Amino acid sequence: MEEIQDRAEVGGPEAAGTAVRLLREIIRTPAFAEVIKTNLGSFDQESARELVRTLMHEDVELSVSIAATIPQVLNYLAAALVEFGRQLEDLPEGLGDQYLEELTLGIDYARFREIADVYRSFLERIDFKRAATSVLGKTVNALAEVINSAASSNPYFLRDAFVGVEVKQVFRALLAVAGSAFLWLVSGIVRLFSRS
C-alpha cells in the first residue's frame, strides 16, 4: 500500500511542480538554455523508430506500461497546447507570425499520412469500432466548438485557415465522409424497416 502511495506521490502535483521549478532555473541559466536549443533541433526520425523497436522487443511488459500512459501524455500535451495558445495572445506584433512559421515549416506531413496506412491493418484486427465511436463523437463535438468559436470572432476564418490546404486531398476526404454518411443512412433505414 505504501509503495502504491509512493508511486502516486512521484507522479503527483508535487513532482510536476518540482519539474516546473527545475525547468525555470534551467531556462534562466544561459549555458543550459543553449544546450536545450541545440538538442531540441537534433531529433532524428530513425532513432525514434529504433527506440520503439527496442522497447517492443526487449521488454514487452514495459512497452505495455508505457502505452497505458499515452492517454495521460496526450492530455498533458493538449493542456500545454491550450496554454500555449493563450500565451500567444500576449505576444508582441509580428512575433506570433514567427512562432507560426517555426511551427509549420519543419513538420513532415508525409509522415502523418503514413500513420493511417501503418495503423489500418492493426485497427482491423482489434475491437476498434467500439472505442472509435466514443472518441469520434467527442472529437466532432470538440471540433464543432472550435469552429463555432472561430466563426464568432472571424467570419472569414475558413478562408484564412485553409490558405495552404491541398484542395484535392480535402475533396477526397469529403467524398469519403459523404460515402460513409450515405452508407450509415442506408443501414439506419434498413434497421428501421426491419423492426416494423
Number of strands: 0
Structural class: mainly alpha
User: Nearest-angstrom radius of gyration?
Assistant: 22 Å
% residues in beta strands: under 5%
Distance between the termini: 56 Å
Mean pLDDT: 75
- Specify the helix fraction band: over 70%
Overall body shape:
extended
Number of helices: 11
Uncertain runs are: 1-10
What order do the SSEs take from the amino end to the carboxyl end, as H and E? Answer: HHHHHHHHHHH
Taking the sheet with the most strands, its summary is: none
Task: Note down, in words, how this protein is organized.
This protein is mostly helical. Among the domains are: 6-38; 51-91; 109-153. The protein has helices spanning 2-10, 13-27, 30-40, 45-58, 60-68, 70-88, 95-105, 109-125, 128-153, 157-161, 167-195. Helix 4 (45-58) packs across helix 5.
Key attributes of the depicted protein:
196 residues; mainly alpha; 11 helices; disordered N terminus
In a few lines, what is going on in this structure?
Helices cover 84% and strands 0% of the residues.
Itemize the secondary structure elements and their pairings.
Elements lengths: L1 H9 L2 H15 L2 H11 L4 H14 L1 H9 L1 H19 L6 H11 L3 H17 L2 H26 L3 H5 L5 H29 L1
